[in-house]
Design a protein that fits this description.
Shape: elongated
Largest sheet: 2 strands, antiparallel
Number of domains: 2
CATH superfamily of the largest domain: Cytochrome c-like domain
Number of helices: 7
Radius of gyration: 35 Å
CATH class of the largest domain: Mainly Alpha
CATH topology of the largest domain: Cytochrome Bc1 Complex, Chain D, domain 2
Bound molecules: heme C
Length: about 200
């Protein structure tokens, strides 16, 4: 590096401090990062122009929504036949599947025995949204979100949805302890097919 003897700032005991210019490579990094950070700020933090973070976010959100919609369109929720739901209520394997799903996803609101807690008693003959297995399936699949009943149709596999309805039918008239007070209209349980 060039040293300029005429640029000595200090000298002490033979040690000299020069006022040399900063090396070119260091200055290049300095200017380079200054310009880069200005451009970075404009495009990414302040979102000037197209292809910015915000536009990218919007575009990715839209394509995610479109792919969810495409999946939903390609996989319509086909309600099972009432006869299958009723037959399930007399089938131990189906009831076990429904009971284990009920314990995990429903008992917190409807009680361990389906006796009702935050949500209605599902063992009595009173129903807010209809007590046929077909209507219960619709309630479970679509929910009543405004009333606090979540929709399960897209959250659970179809066999578990059906098993839940069969399980609920199998709990009819079991008279569990500490039931929640009856709500809704009286509906006689549909008869189960002969086994
Ligand atoms: C976050 C609490 C909550 C969870 C979890 C929940 N429910 Fe509900 N459920 C409710 C509420 C509240 C209602 C009453 C809705 C109303 O008043 O219209 C309800 C209503 C129902 C009804 C209709 C009862 C009637 O009288 O018509 C059925 C059937 C039902 N739930 C089944 C289920 C099943 C099956 C699950 C689990 C997959 C489940 N619920 C999970 C809160 C819940």
């Amino acid at each position: 590096m060039t040293q300029y003897d005429d640029r000595v700032l200090h000298e002490l005991d033979g040690i000299k401090e020069y006022d040399n210019p900063m090396p070119g490579w260091l200055m290049a990094i300095w200017w380079g990062s200054l310009i880069f950070s200005g451009a970075y700020l404009m495009f990414f933090a302040l979102s000037f122009g197209e292809g910015t973070m915000e536009a990218e976010y919007r575009q990715q959100t839209q394509s995610a929504i479109a792919s969810v919609q495409a999946y939903v369109d390609a996989h319509p929720l086909v309600p099972p036949k009432p006869a299958e739901l009723l037959a399930g209520a007399g089938n131990e394997a189906v009831i076990d599947l429904g009971a284990s799903r009920f314990a995990r996803s429903c008992a917190a609101c409807h009680g361990e025995q389906a006796q009702g807690l935050i949500g209605p008693n599902l063992t009595d003959d009173r129903w807010l949204h209809g007590g046929s297995v077909e209507q219960i399936f619709q309630t479970v699949a679509k929910g009543w979100p405004a009333k606090g009943m979540p929709p399960w149709g897209r959250a659970l596999p179809p066999e578990e949805l059906s098993a839940l309805v069969s399980y609920i039918r199998s709990r009819q008239a079991t008279n569990p302890p500490n039931p929640r007070a009856a709500e809704g209209d009286q509906v006689m349980p549909e008869p189960l097919p002969a086994q």
